[in-house]
Write the structure tokens for this entry.
Amino acid sequence: MVTLFDQEKIAEIHDYNVAKAARQEGHQLGRAEGRAEGRAEGRAEGRAEGRAEGRAEGRAEGRAEGRAEGRAEGREEGRTEGREEGIRAVVGMLRGMSVEQKQIAQKLVEQFGLLPSAAEEKVKQYWKQ
């Protein structure tokens, strides 16, 4: 009976060691698979978050740049229109005072820094109005 008991005990110890080795191997494989899955999920989440943050920053920067450009363009258009209104007013006022076209053109050159040919064109343009 001692022999039978020893064989049963040996089989039990063997089964225990086999199960233990399988558990350890499974644990190691599980950890490796878990790490790989975690890395893949982390990369995917990181990319998604990075894209979202990048888009948000890009939109904010784009809006700010657009506003700044729009303001600059608006100011420039306003200046151009204001200058044109000033030229029109000078031509109209001096015409009403019976000043000759050449003298009006000369005033435009002095006041607005126009070239003489451009000043003459402006006088002709606004003389009819």
